[in-house]
Amino acid sequence: AAERVHLSQPALSQHVGELERGLGARLFERRGRTVALTEAGRILEDHALRELATLDGARQAIADLAGGARGSLIVGASTTPGLYLLPGLMGAFERDQPGISVDLRIANSRTIEEQVRANELDLGLVGGHGLGPGEECLAAGILDELVLIVAPRHAWARRARREPSDLGRERLLIREEGSASRQVTERALQRAGVKVGRMLVLGHTEAIKQAVMAGLGVAFVSIYAARGELETGRLQRVRLRGLRIQRHFHVIHNEARALTIRSNAFIAALQRFGQPAVAQRGRPRPR
């Protein structure tokens, strides 16, 4: 820690001691050869991160006054929007806003939320999101649908509609913990009273599609993720009676940070991208 802030170890220890005396509480405790935060330390850390985010947001807002819509923007996205939606949007956005460069980082929803709270991202785009501490939802403009896919040779491929209870006899391929797709699917199946039998966890949507095509099971994936395989017949969609799983992609950011001109421009582009008129020009509309 001393090296990161360019101080000697004794000088940093002195600063910590002064801070603890001023607050009237211990902030750190030794555990063997490591140091951990106390409860008071964790409370201070949360407030400190918020203050740093507010200060960084103020700097960005002031810089915007002079620079306008110029500079860089760090956007994080969960797997589905990051792989299947944002590349197309980013191309159009950078043509409209040549002064703004976008750095896209893709991870599962839980990781994106953590990075937003840690002030590592300007914006996060996740699906089926429930707000956590320190997060603010800015927009929910693009509708997604999770569709049930099977291999073309699967028995269900010859019948376009099945009963939800039939899922209990199939192996369900599902994403890892922390994936919004998994959370949305599990909630929908629970509400519908569907009891899932065997499951196989795979850490990526592309792996799930390949496993379905190999006959390892059935899966719910975003219509955006499966559109290419559905159009070419490499996968088949099966509808379940009375069960439809939909969600919106939400834009989140650290509530302690002021939105910059760049962030607002990106959110506006995303909302335009989610309008039905855009969907008619090439994006698949959930059915």
Write the layout of secondary structure elements.
Elements: H1 9-23, E1 28-31, E2 34-37, H2 39-67, E3 71-77, H3 79-84, H4 86-96, E4 100-106, H5 109-117, E5 123-127, E6 135-150, E7 161-162, E8 172-174, H6 180-191, E9 199-201, H7 205-213, E10 218-222, H8 223-232, E11 236-240, E12 245-254, H9 261-273, H10 276-280
Parallel strand pairs: 3-4, 3-5, 7-11, 8-9, 8-10
Antiparallel strand pairs: 1-2, 5-12, 6-10, 6-11, 6-12
Strand % is: 15-25%
In DSSP terms (H or I, runs of 4 or more residues), the helix count works out at: 10
**What is the helix/strand order?**
HEEHEHHEHEEEEHEHEHEEHH
Helix content: 40-55%
> What is the SS-derived class?
alpha/beta
Overall body shape: globular
Major sheet, described briefly? 10 strands, mixed
List how many beta strands DSSP finds.
12
Describe this structure in words.
It is a single chain. The chain is of the alpha/beta class and 287 residues long. The chain is built from 10 helices and 12 strands. Strands 3, 4, 5, 6, 7, 8, 9, 10, 11 and 12 form a 10-stranded mixed beta sheet that branches. It has a two-stranded antiparallel ribbon with strand order 1-2.
Features:
287 residues, alpha/beta, 10-stranded mixed beta sheet, two-stranded antiparallel ribbon, 12 strands, globular, disordered C terminus
